[in-house]
Structures are given as C-alpha cells and as structure tokens.
Amino acid sequence: MEKLQFMLILLLSPLAQGIIKKLKAMMQGRRGTPVLQPYYDLARLFKKDMTIPGTASWIFHAAPYVVFASVLAASMLVPVFSAGGRPSGLLAGGGGFFGMGDIIAIIYTLALGRFFMALGGLDAGTVFGGEGSSREMTVAILVEPSMMLAIFTVAAASGSTNLGVIANSGNFFFSPAHVLALAAFFVAVIAETGRIPVDNPDTHLELTMIHEGMLLEYSGKYLAVMEWAHYMKQMLLFTLAADLFFPYGIAGAGAGAGIGIAAAGFWAGKMLALCFGMALVESTRAKMRFFQLPSLLGAAFVLSALSMITFVMTGK
Amino acid sequence: METDRPDKAVSVVNGEISSACYLLYAAGCLFLGLFSLRDLLFGYSWYLSLPLSGVLSLSFGGGGLSAYFVIILSLLGFCVSIYSVGYTKHSGGGSPWPSFFIFGIFLSSMCAVFYSANIPAFLISWETMSLSSYFLVVSDTTNIESSRAGLLYAVMTHVGTAFIMAAFMVMFFATGSLEFTAIKAGLAGAGGLRSVIFVLALTGFGTKAGIIPLHTWLPRAHPAAPSNVSALMSGVMIKSGIYGILLVAFNILGAGAGLSAAPLWWGVAVLSAGAVSSVMGIMHALMERDIKRLLAYSSVENIGIILLGVGASMIFSCNNLPVLAGLALAAALYHTLNHAVFKGLLFMGAGSVVNTTGTKNLEEMGGLIKRMPWTGLFFLVGSIAICALPPFNGFMSEWLTFQSLIMGIKTSVVLAKTLMLLSGAALALTGALAASCFVKAFGISFLGVPRSREAQAAKEAPAAMLLGMGILSLFCLLLGIFPGYILKLLSGIPLPVLGSLPQFVPGGLAVFGIGSSGVLPVTLLGSFLAGAAFIFVFPLAAGGGRKSTCADPWDCGIQKLTPRMQYTATAFTHPLRRIFKKIYKPRKEVRIEYIVKPFFTREIEYRSEITPLAEAYFYRPLVRALHGLAHFAKRLQSGNLQLYLGYILGTLVVLLVVWG
Fold first, then answer.
1. Is residue B347 domain-resident?
2. What is the pLDDT of residues A146-167, one digit of tens each?
3. Claim to verify: residue B285 and residue B414 sit in the same structural domain
C-alpha cells in the first residue's frame, strides 16, 4: 500500500488547487468555481487539439513529458503518509527506506523539471517565453539558498537528509530554529508554486507573467500535462513542508492498514491547513513588483540563516 | 588556381599525419587508462627512477591518487583525441602540424605530472605542461586576442610555478631530500614550517586550478585556445592544481591523519576559497555572452565545488571524524572526475558550434538544434549534468558534497559548523545559478530562431567529433547511475582518509551510520521513465485530441516576429544584473542617433558590461602598489656618482657592524 502513496499526490493535486481557489473565492466574498474545476479543465484540455509553434524543436515536445515525469518521480520519493517503504530489494540490509525520501534528491529532481520548463519557454523564440524563463530561473536563484538552508537546519537537527529519518526523529517540536526555518520554507513554497505575492497564477497579462509566460505557446494536451505537473508540484511541496516541520502522524515502516488510513487522514488535514494558509496569503497580499522580490526572498534567507545559527548556538 | 595545388597537397598530407597522430594518442590514452585502472583496482604500485647526474634523478611512481588522476586524463584524452581527428580537418585554416605535435607533448606531460614521485620530475613535467599548453593557446596565429591571452597565461602560470618552487625549496631545505616519500617522513615534526609549505602550495596550485582571485588567466586563455585544447585544459589541466593540493596537503603533509597533522585553519582556508570560487565563478559565467568564456568561468565554479569537498575533509579529520573526512574527500574526487567528463563534453560541443558558425557570441546563434541535432543533444546532456540534475553524474557528486557539508554539524567548533552549513547554502545557490546559466547557454544558442546568417547556415559536425562527444555523454549517464562503483574505485586509493568510505551499494549511494540517507539513481531513473511513459500513454487512453496544427507563435498581433525580437542572452540575465548590482557593478551606455527626435531613430548602440571583481579589487591595487614601489625605487637612482659611492660606503659600514 505504502508503495502507491504517490498516487495520492497524482490524483488529489488538482483537488488541492480547486480547494485553494474555492477558499480564496470565499474569503473574497465570491461564489467561485466548483472545487472540482481543475479536473474539468484538465479533461477538457486533454480532449483539445494542439497548436504547435512552427519555430519549435523537439525540446518543445519533450518538455511537458520531462516536467511531468520529474515531478512524478519526485513524488515517488516523498513519504506522503508513511515513512516505510519503497524499493528495499535493491539495498541489501539497507533498512528499507534508503531508496526514497532523500530531500536533496527530491529538490534536484524537481529542478530537472524546472530546467526543461524554462527550455520549453525559450524554444519557440518568442519574447514572452524567454521572459518567463528568465524570471523563473531568477526567482529560483533567490529561493534556492534559503530553502536549502532551512532544509539543512532540519536535516542537521535530525542527523539525516532523509525525510523518513527526519519524521521519525521527532526531536524538534517548536524549537526556535524550527519556527524560523518553517517561516523561510513557507516563503520558498509560495515562490516555488508561483503564488501571490511572487507570481499571480490567475493572470493573463503578458508583462507580469512568470509561470504562465513559459507556457504561453502550449495548448491542448501539452498544456494539460504542464498544468497537472504544476498542481502536483504544489502538493508535493506542501507534503514536504508537512514532512519536515509537522511530521506528527506519519506511519512508520510496516504499520498496519488501520494506522495507514489514520496517517492518510492526518496528511489530508495538514494539506487542508496549508491550502487555507495559501488562500489566506493570496487574499490578503497584493502581487509584488518583480524587482521587489529580492527583499522578500532576501528576508527569507535571513530567516533561514538565523535559524541555522540559532540551531548551531543552542543545539536545538 | 595552379599555385594552390602544392599547398593543398601539403595540407592533405598534413591532415593524414595529424589524423594518424590523434588516433595514436587515443590508443595511448586507452592503454594508460586501462593500466591505471588495473593499478587502482588491484592496489598495485610501481616506482621508476631515472638517474640524471650525481644525486639528481627523475623518479616516477604509479598507483593510488596518481592512478586515479591518470584515469581521468586518459578518459578525457581518449575522447578529445578522437574528436580532434574531425576537429582539425574541419576547422581548416592555419597549418595544423605543430599543434598536433604539441598536443601530444601536452598530454604526456600531464601524465608525467600525475606520475611524478620526486621534486625534479614534478617541476620538469609541470613546466612542460605549462609551456606546451601556452603554445597551444597561442596556436591561432590569426587572432591578436589569443596572443594577449597567451601572455597573461604565461605570466600567471609562472607566478604560480614560483610559489610551487618556493614550497618545494622549503621542503628540500627542511628535509634534505627530493623524494616525496622521504620528504613526508622528514616533515612529520616540522611544526610551523608545514603551514608555510601549505600556504605556498595552496597559492601556487590554486593559480593553476583557478581559485578566485587567481583565476584571471582562465577565462581568457581557455576561449583563445582551439576547442579540443580548451576541453583538455578545463577538463584535466586545471585538475593538476587540485592534484597538487592533494599531493602536498594529504600525501606529503599528511592532512587527514588527525589534528596533529593539519591545523583547523587549513581546512577553513580551503573551504572558504571553495565557497567564494564557486559562487563568484558561476556569477561571472552567467553574465558571459561568449560561450567559451562562460564555460571557462564555470570551470572556476566547479573547482570551487571540488575544494568545498577537500576543505570539508580537512576540517573533519581535524575533528577526528575519519568517516566524514573520507566521505568529503570522496565527494571532491568524484566531482573531479565528473567535471572532467562534462566540461570536456561542453567545450567540444562549443567547439563544434564555433567551428560551423564562426562566432563565440551567443547573441549570434540560435536555432542550432535543428541544424546540428546530435551536437545539440550532447550539449544538452552536458548542460544537465553540470547543473547537477539527476540522473546524470554531476548530481551524485554534489549530493555527496551536500551530505558532507550538512554533517559539518558534527564538528566540535562553532565556526566550523556555521561555515560548513553556510557553504552548503552557497552550494545550493551555485546550483541554482548554474541552472540559470546553462538554460541560457543552451537555450539561446540551440533553441529559438537563428539570429544570424551564419547560424542559419550551420552544419552538423563530422562523425569523429560526434563520436568523441557521444562517448562522454554516455559517461555522464553511467557515472551518474552507478555511483557505488566509483566509490569502490576510490576506496582503492591508499590515503588514510579514504580508508573508511561509505558502504558499497550497487546501483546507488548511501551513507549509513553517519547521515543515514541514500539515493538510488537507477530507481530514480526507472520511476522517471515510468512517469514519462504514464503521461505519454494516459492521454491516448483517455481518447483525447490527437491532431496538432502548426502555427506562428503568439506575436501580440503584429504581423511577424523577427529573430531580433527574441530574448537575448543579455536580456535573459538582466534581472540578475539588476538584483546583484552591488556585486556586478554593471555599466550601461546607450547611444541613439535620431532622424527626428525623439520618435524616429536611425541607430541605437547599447553597450553594457560588468566589472570583474578580482581585477578591480585585487589586481589593480596590486599593480598600483608595484608602480608605487617602482617610483620609490626610482628616487634612489638619482644618477649622482657621489650618492652611489655613499651607498657603497653605507653598505660597507652596515656589513662591518653586523659581522664585526
């Protein structure tokens, strides 16, 4: 069962997107689209024919598959509700979980997807694609150090970069270092998922787009694949946040079905809480100008550096 | 036309000879590689002494660290030699004959450097390596830029050699021996002298490796050299600097054998040099429009990453954490191999592009992937690998580096803990910058629409060049998905630090007991392929739209997009130039000629450049200080005879007082 836990991310990620949209609409006093709207969108896009720019090369066609496959591969590495797990056969005596759950591997597998998405944006040779790619890579540069430093602090505290070990170590509830790291990580998640105040997921105004800019030339099936991958990446990052900072209620290796279902319930609760947080931030903030982002993301870096120093000084 | 014939005949014969020579080099590299692989796998070592005169002899020895570096050399040398068969024919212009000859000397001198077992042998091979590479850098006689680059290279490399010689002289005077093994024994209790040797060696070898601020020759010399030579220089020659640091610090001074062998600040110095070089190197690479300079700066970055591992290893062994010290050094050595493979590949790819388009400027390329599909694919593989993206090789060595830096928390000194975690953040920043840099390098040159007539007319490289690149691309993948075997190979190096490497895991890499984490690149690749297969099949199964129509890209309603409207390399990095303006100090100059002010322009000239930090804050003050010193010395030289007599008298008096 726990080998298939990535299916939750695969199947439920459009729902999370729908919930955020619905919550946002409720906070803003609108009725909003149905919670299942992202599924309808995907189904409709999958049915449509595609328009391919004549200037594009095979990179344009490969990018959606690479983006999706890298996000899915990263999802397979994440303990969603169970830290027990996948491929133990290859590792004799490795205690089960060594094949999965390494957070550096997860972050870099996601980076492979971003790399190809940026190439897909550049491939058609249009201004907006290039602009989107350039901005996406710039935001990544600003986000990556603070995100990794926050992760390092948590990893150093539990002696491993493995999410399974981090979840099981359980030695860090509400230590100052973890609160600071969480704040930094949350900002990083906002930036990575392309949400306000970093990027506006609903915009179609060309000059302000980041994520949408790269996808501007995509249509039909490819657009559906890209969007689905984006939803999955969002839920994956939420799950990472839950694993790193609220690992309470994750089933251990060899846990029974009952515990597994309870753990999945815990996970769903955490996802809902994070969706609420995102909707709250999106409803109460305005999108920042692109060149104001360094101050926000710089602050996140300071937070994560503070968190690291706090941890080194206090050992907690 | 008649007169052309003899020349042509000569060049055909030349071409045949050069092809034969390059194939010979390839065969030689293959032999050397297998020979060293045998040494390393079975733990053989050999020793050879050639007496010159009296006490002076040249001695060479194989096995261990030498064997590992020779394997790197021969792997890259093999592929570059095959590539060169096509490259020299293809590039045409100029007489190739001396260059293929010097190429052989260059290859063998690098090999001799790695095999040297005493000071004379090392210095002679080192100097041969420097001089032969100098001649290769300036071999493009039509280009004034390359002879200027060559001069700078010659000066810098000899400054480095001077420091290395000083280090060796101190060793000789302290121990009275020229053999490395005897020196090692003699220096065991030398105290403060050991630190002097270390600093001299770090400076000298750091110049060759390209540590910031000693890197300044690198982004000039590598682009000026022919691309097959740049591949070797960036892939292997600068690694001889790393080899030198490891030789002196670990083999001779015995760092890695605990606190008594090397004080903490050695490791801190190497770690800081690594962090600064990696971040600053890639930040400069990002701003480059010249594809080969971009790659050269990226070499500075990768040398920095290697030094992060070396420094971490020294810090760990100071703190009596031998397992972690082994892990960190293994990360550094692994990355040394990986960088040789993908940087060689990228320089060769750049060489193919430069050959056919005749320009190194990214802004004049574009759309090349349609015209050179194989070169494009190989360059893409190299780009993914150098950005440390799984499942290629760069990822595995950076993963190990990350692991060792995070475990810096286990050291007992607060400074070391903080520095190592911050270095980890620097490495993360480096990774993100590198991704942006290579999205730019690949995206602007190979994707989009051709930006010039030359790019429009580009042709695929000949088969020999593609073969050389293809083999390295395959190695990028293999070294990435079988990391366990590399660690097994490394555990054959008889350094005390590498005695306790992480457990061997087929098809993966895992650190048990210390960090308890692991990656299985094979599984990762498997799940990636499964994901791709799923999303390929899913829409078909769902019965979605299968038709696709071709159309012009979205142009906001204007009639037709031109190639000049694409995002350029300069535009791509503009946000970063603006965000990091404190570091880059960009200068911008816009000149507009109007027909009717302010609406109709005839010509716009836009010029922007960044200030290279090392030049502005290190070399310019240095040169100014030297000039000042010269001015001061000039005052002594008044030309007055009486004054000179006075100097002699003064000197005599001082001498009498001192000795009397």
1. yes
2. 999 999 988 888 878 888 777 7
3. yes
Q: Are residues B480 and B621 in the same domain?
A: no
Give, as one character, the DSSP assignment of residue A217: T
**Whether residues B476 and B621 fall in one domain:** no
Tokens for B63? 């096995």
- Whether B373 is in a domain gets the answer yes
- Which residues of A fall within a CB distance of 8 Å from B516? 98, 159-160, 162, 165
If we measure between CA atoms, which residue out of B473, B479, B391 comes closest to residue A66?
Answer: B391
**Contact assessment for residue B575 and residue A138, using Cβ atoms and an 8 Å cutoff:** yes
Residues B524, A105: C-beta atoms closer than 8 Å = yes
Pairing mode, strands B509-511 and B517-519: antiparallel
| Number of folded domains that form chain A | 1
Domain that includes residue A191, residue range: 2-314
C-alpha distance from B406 to closest chain A C-alpha (Å)? 6
Contact between B416 and B315 under an 8 Å Cβ cutoff? The reply is yes
Supply the DSSP symbol for B594.
Answer: E
Question: Are residue B504 and residue B624 in the same domain, yes or no?
Answer: no
Query: Which two three-digit tokens encode residue B207?
Result: 């110049």
Q: Which two tokens stand for residue B260?
A: 């008594």
The alpha-carbon gap from A256 to the nearest alpha carbon of chain B, in Å, equals 24
C-beta separation of B207 from B241 below 8 A = yes
10-residue stretch averages of pLDDT, chain B, 660 residues long: 49 75 93 92 87 84 89 96 84 60 93 93 95 87 79 92 94 89 82 89 94 89 89 94 93 75 88 95 92 94 96 90 88 95 96 91 92 95 95 92 88 88 93 95 94 91 93 94 86 78 66 65 86 88 75 80 86 90 84 82 81 82 91 82 89 88
The answer to ipTM > 0.90 is yes
Q: How many domains does chain B have?
A: 2
Choose the closest CB to B523 out of A68, A70, A90.
A90
* Together in a domain, B485 and B631: no
End-of-domain residue from the set B503, B526, B549: B526
CB contact under 8 A, B532 and A65: yes
Task: Tell me the shortest Cα–Cα distance from A25 to chain B, in angstroms.
Answer: 31
Structure tokens at B627: 């000039």
- Spell out the residues 6+ positions from residue B598 whose beta carbon is closer than 8 angstroms to its own: none
CB-based contact, A296 to chain B, within 8 Å: no
Cα–Cα distance between A281 and A200 in angstroms, integer?
A: 12
Domain boundary among B526, B549, B575: B526
Question: Which of B389, B407, B530 has the CB atom closest to A115's CB atom?
Answer: B389
Give which of B559, B608, B562, B555 is closest to B581, Cα–Cα: B608
Gap between the Cα atoms of B531 and B580, Å rounded: 38
Strands B600-609 and B548-551: unpaired
A253 confidence band (pLDDT: 50, 70, 90): low
Q: Which domain holds residue B338?
A: 281-526
Cβ distance A141 to B421 less than 8 Å, yes or no, reads no
Question: What pTM was computed for the model?
Answer: 0.93
Which structure tokens are listed for B239?
A: 């690694």
Residue B327 lies in a domain: yes
A197: nearest Cα among A212, A184, A187, A207: A187
Check whether residue B386 and residue B492 sit in a common domain. Answer: yes
Residue B446 lies in a domain: yes
Examine the domain organization and report whether B288 and B419 are in the same domain: yes
Residue in B closest to A56 by C-alpha:
B448
Name the region of B575 (left: φ>0; alpha: ψ -120 to 50; beta: rest): alpha
Q: How many CB atoms lie within 10 A of CB A39?
A: 17
Of A212, A206, A47, A201, nearest to A117 by C-alpha is A212
pLDDT at B322: 84
